[in-house]
Amino acid sequence: MARTTENGDGIGGWIRSVPEFVNQVKAETAKVSWPTRKETMMTSIMVVIMTTVLGLFFLGVDQAFNTLAQLLLKLVA
Predict the structure, then answer these.
(1) In this structure, are 45 and 76 located in the same domain?
(2) What is the pLDDT of residues 24-61, one digit of tens each?
(3) Which residue among 9, 20, 63, 68 has the highest number of C-beta atoms inside a 10 angstrom radius?
(4) Domain total of the chain
(5) Contact 60/52 with Cβ under 8 angstroms?
């Protein structure tokens, strides 16, 4: 049995609906409020700064836990 879509047109209907879908995507994309170059640069800089700060924070936490684990292992051994 052939596969059909909701309107019963089968594969042919699906293929005919592709251009309509592309046109709808273009229409929706035109409605998007795109950020300015300045906004994009500021956001990118903030992402780099925050990832660096968080990376350093977690490095410190990791080092603290490592030191604590080493001290506990020395006590046991």
Answers:
(1) yes
(2) 999 999 999 999 999 999 999 999 999 999 999 999 99
(3) 9
(4) 2
(5) no
